[in-house]
Amino acid sequence: MPCILFLHLLIPELLQCSYGDQSRELAETDNKLLEIAIEGGDKVSTDDIKDIHHEHAHSHAHAHAQTRTDMDHIDPSLMVFFTLKELKVGKTMPIHFPKRDPATSPKLWPKEQADSVPFSLNRLQYLVKLFSFSPNSPQARAMQSTLSECESKPIKGEVKFCATSYESMLDFTHRIIGLKTEVQSFATFHQRKSSVTFQNYTISEIVMAIEAPKMVACHTMPYPYAIFYCHSQESGNRVYSVLLDGDNGDKVVAMVVCHLDTSQWSPSHVSFQVLGVTPGTSSVCHFFPADHLIWVPKLQTHGSSTM
């Protein structure tokens, strides 16, 4: 394996965390802990992770009792959720955007190269050794979590696939959207960004709205090279591109997915805790980080500045 590939392992911030939970969309405590573990290297102990897990589990359990504008008492990384009725010009809300640069993030390997390396939980011991990690290191646990997530059973109405190459991602997208359907991808873009990851943003324009009965969302996963957790759900979705103006001067062209039917989601889904709603009673919308992708059919879009 070329030495340059191992450089990704030496730059912790390039090993990204996916948005998980049973719908595989939202930030779950375990994946956040993996990101902390990766960034901290071998200095993070098992007891440290257990302590942090307990703290986050406690805060998640009480998140529904807190207001979304109380930026001092809620986990900032959870502030990406809102409801469809809030999607309107002039709306201000606190939002967390990780400062990840897709240009410097790990790239998907070519299919031939990716296919030459096993991607299987039962080969974990071999993979950990291949990438020169110690068996009990945070990096090894992160790899185990990603492989377990990729091999786990999908929720009802979900089709999922972990892409290890661009070709495999595109093949999966076409299987979902249509083998002969032309597709296009969208991602969040930071036009102007500061070092602040959490601030109030105001929706200044709704650039695009797409009805997306068939769409594929692909989320980065913690791994030595780029892995995308791609999935699609049968329930109705809408995709939006909105222009956000941050209080700190940031400008973001942000991608949003709104799930119109949440009746099949787990009651413990973190979005319900943040929004104070229950499955099937409300739509759930969320912003996408810059290194996640949304695939939709290449359809005519509808631009608007009001809703």
From TrEMBL:
Residues 1-20 form the signal peptide. The keyword Signal applies. Keywords: Signal. InterPro entries: BURP, BURP_dom. Residues 81-298 form the BURP domain. The keyword Lyase does not apply. This is Putative BURP domain-containing protein. It comes from Lupinus albus.
